[in-house]
């Protein structure tokens, strides 16, 4: 569709000349000879305005102010017969894109128009991307209407519009901390800026430092070029630090310095860099316990927890499982081109009584598998037979019974390790949660039973 340009001038010859030149450049042109007529045309929708300063019923600055109040998007180029710098400056201070002095060169005006329209196009594209980002990552993706989740979403909305530079999200693995972080960014005034995320447990200390802070050329052996870190790249945006508790004490100190001084230096650098970023940190660990045991800095914790939100586990919000199931069914219908319409009452009851140790992530994976395997329009209990029955998955201390013939404890220990790693798909952190162990305890038993070489377990990750 051709852009529409409104030409406002009381001289018919000026309007005719501009129309001829702009139509030759394949623009649509509408004309107005007064400020009142210009405002009426503008309300019908235009892409750019060429506005004369001297009009019979008003002046261009007053018309400009009215147009800005109606729609601030379309650029306005002021046309003036006087070479007054003050008038041009005033017009641009009030929102004019640029100005052109009469008598003007029509080709120069056409170039100015082209540049102004490109600015408008880019501005609208940014807003469209922001709207799409809000739709993709907004609070609609934080699914749940239980009292616990209504409270969480109310907090997240307040945090999103707050000027706070740090946020701490806590909760078990799989409770949706990454979704919450995305929603905060998408609904904040930083939404037009970048969203950078990094999992602190996924990289060794030296690589994590370089990823966060960047490095100068020659800072270390493989630093052949200068590299900007995520904090620098995320200027005017958000950095999401997942699994912050896995960060080494050295990096904790450097992060604290950045949060306190709003500045950092690249690895090997000598110049302070001051990006404007919001830090959202997340962890499934009990940071208070980590502080007591000397694994996490108390001063960093208090700096991060200016605004803190705890994401409840799925077992504490069973009322939300039906909503979540519907949400994931709709999502995977679109993704896999399926036509599942519902989850049977029996299947839903089973889902609501399952303890979900993997929380929302586990439920999502269960729905994904069920949708893929379904051949009808309803998911039944048969589609979820791979889920452990709740009476087995939720056993309490003292429920287990020693078989009459006894057991070989080492064999039982190894089998439980294998099952935990299989269910966690080789993820050590997740396997540790399933067995109530620390990662160090898990690593010891992986080495003890040589599970890295087990074909049954498959790839074992350090996370």
What does this protein look like?
- The protein is built from 19 helices and 14 strands.
- β4 (76-80), α4 and β5 form a beta-alpha-beta unit.
- It is an alpha/beta fold.
Fold blueprint:
Blueprint lengths: L3 E5 L3 H13 L3 E5 L2 H9 L4 E5 L7 H11 L5 E5 L4 H9 L4 E4 L4 H32 L9 H15 L4 E5 L6 H10 L8 E5 L5 H9 E2 L11 E2 L1 H4 L4 E5 L6 H13 L16 E6 L3 H6 L5 H7 L3 E3 L10 H16 L5 E2 L1 H9 L5 H15 L4 E2 L10 H4 L15 H15 L4 H8 L3 H10 L15
Parallel strand pairs: 1-2, 1-3, 3-4, 4-5, 6-11, 6-12, 7-10, 10-11, 13-14
Antiparallel strand pairs: 8-9
Helix pairs in contact: 2-3, 5-7, 6-7, 10-12, 13-15, 17-18, 18-19
Question: Ranges with pLDDT <50 over ≥5 residues?
Answer: 390-397
Instruction: Give the strand order, joined by hyphens, for the main sheet.
Output: 2-1-3-4-5
Rg (CA only): 31 Å
At the fourth CATH level, what is the homologous superfamily of the largest domain? P-loop containing nucleotide triphosphate hydrolases
* CATH fold annotation of the largest domain: Rossmann fold
The percentage of residues in β strands lies in: 5-15%
What structural class do you assign from the helix and strand content? alpha/beta
| End-to-end separation | 52 Å
How many structural domains in the coordinates? 4
Helix content: 40-55%
The overall strand count is 14
Largest sheet: 5 strands, parallel
Please give the CATH class of the largest domain: Alpha Beta
Mean pLDDT: 87
**CATH architecture level-2 label of the largest domain:** 3-Layer(aba) Sandwich
Shape, principal axes of CA atoms = elongated
Number of helices: 19
